Amino acid sequence: MKSFVKPILPLSSDPSNRFLPWIIGFMVWLATLAFAASMILSNISKNWEGVLTGAITIQIIPSENDDTQILKNKTQKLLALLSKIPAIESASVVTLDEINKMLQPWLGEKSLSTELGIPIPVLIDARLKKNMVINTDALSASLKATVKGVRLNDHALWVDRLLEFTQAIRIVALTIMVLVIISAITTVVFSTRTGLTIHSEIIELTHFIGAREEFIRNQFSINTFKLAIKGGLCGLITSSATLLFLGSIMEGVGIGLIPPVHLTAFQWLGVGGIGLTAIFISTVTANLTAKIILRRMT
Amino acid sequence: MRYGISQEILLDISFTLEKGSFTFITGSSGAGKSTLLKLLYLAHLPSRGKIRLFGKDVTKINRSELPGIRQRIGVVFQNFRLIPSLTTLDNVALPLRIAGASEVQVKEHVPELLDWVGLGKHLHDYPETLSGGQKQRVAIARAVIARPSLLLADEPTGNVDDQIALKFMFLLKELNKIGTTIIVATHDETLISRFDLPRLHLESGHLNFPEGSVTNGAIR
Question: What's the number of domains chain B is made of?
Fold first, then answer.
């Protein structure tokens, strides 16, 4: 038997029909932004993790008696030592220009040593080989034995703190998504209940004419499906526009501070999936709500 | 039969209608005619006793079987109960669509039937634009479109003038000739007297068989 028929119940004139697409659209927008935030943070934390765990920084803090030549000698000694360690792929001195460039977002165009007169340490950036583990304590001791006043930074503390921070934000984003889904379900439940109450006389009539429960249920789920498509599409379009807009702004602002803020193609599919999920959840919720209430009505 | 904890509305009623019969249910207002019809179109189940329809005890069937039985019953409601948001065509097509008929069947049969009841020019009109008599004919068309085995009419002539009431009765006679079992609940004695048909008379919830009302043992 066919269960899909033309709309019998005048659901399109229900007050809930006017606000449901807006609510679904807003929920999709919120859920998509929360999802995107979670994904972007995941990308950023992976990026940071990759950059920071794959490198160590060695600082030679100049003492009062150190002139340029002494510093140069110390640097050469350390570079020679580092080149003999199998886990280290490369080691190079960070030039003054590079340091100035890194600090540019905070200090502007002025040079640290020449214009501001701030004594700066010699920095050696050492890159580790992939999948190689290094004993930083042993390395630190070895470096200190070679050159006094040298300091090793393996970024572990930074990595841990950043990961904790991004993880906390991801949890908040996922909580927002769950709350949004619960709110969407609640809205559809109330909308369907209202529709069933408003049209109870027609529903009763269709029962007397021989309508099966699924006939009535389909009236509600098809109507909700149409509204959810409208709302879901609007939510997706506005959230995609928001993400693209934010991405373009962040690209301009985040030089040096934040890695590029963008989603991968697969993550964009996930964004689309939120819209489809919203449509699916709304339709199923309407169907199940109608089923439960119709059982009570008959 | 009783509603909730009220006193019983119908008491000790027992009768059988033969297939293809035409019967009046008479009685004054509040005698229980509508309640009896509601029991017959399965709007309610009796609080005690049993009802057999089409060979099945409807008090014992599964709820999943109810739609199938209801689809074999056509009902003309007292106040017609047309759906205001649907056109004449869609109102009449409702039983067909509920039964899963295709749109091709709907487009073929509904206009033909509406033409037959004189509403061929009102296919796309909404109930609020129709007169009482026209609404009644839409209600009848809806009740018969799916060719029910049993047709129930609750005070069908209550809201129309005598001429339309007579037309309606002749229409029912035509349907009866093609094998539909018909039960008409009415308190319109003038109408009843014009037709030599068996009648069940309800009085304070009890069933009486007025003398001469039972023909050929059709009702017992």
Answer: 2
* Chain position carrying tokens 């905070």: A106
A22: CB partners within 8 A, 6+ apart? A231
More confident residue, A36 or B167: A36
Tell me the chain A residues in contact with residue B69 when contact means C-beta distances shorter than 8 Å.
Answer: 210
Report how far residue A226's alpha carbon sits from residue B3's, in angstroms, rounded to the nearest whole number: 40
DSSP state of B92: H
Number of domains forming the structure of chain A: 2
Are A163 and A258 found together in one domain?
A: yes
ipTM: 0.85
pLDDT exceeds cutoff 80 at A253: no
> Which of B117, B147, B177 lies at the terminal end of a domain, its last residue?
B147
My answer on whether B68 and B154 are in the same domain is: yes
Chain A residues with CB under 8 Å of B148 CB are none
Q: How crowded is the C-beta side of A259, counted as CA atoms within 13 Å? A: 15
Q: Which of A104-113, A164-173, A218-227 has the lowest mean pLDDT?
A: A104-113
Domain of residue B165, residue span? 1-72+149-220
Q: Chain A within 8 Å of B90 (Cβ-Cβ)?
A: yes
- Chain A residues touching residue B94 (CB < 8 angstroms): 8, 206, 209
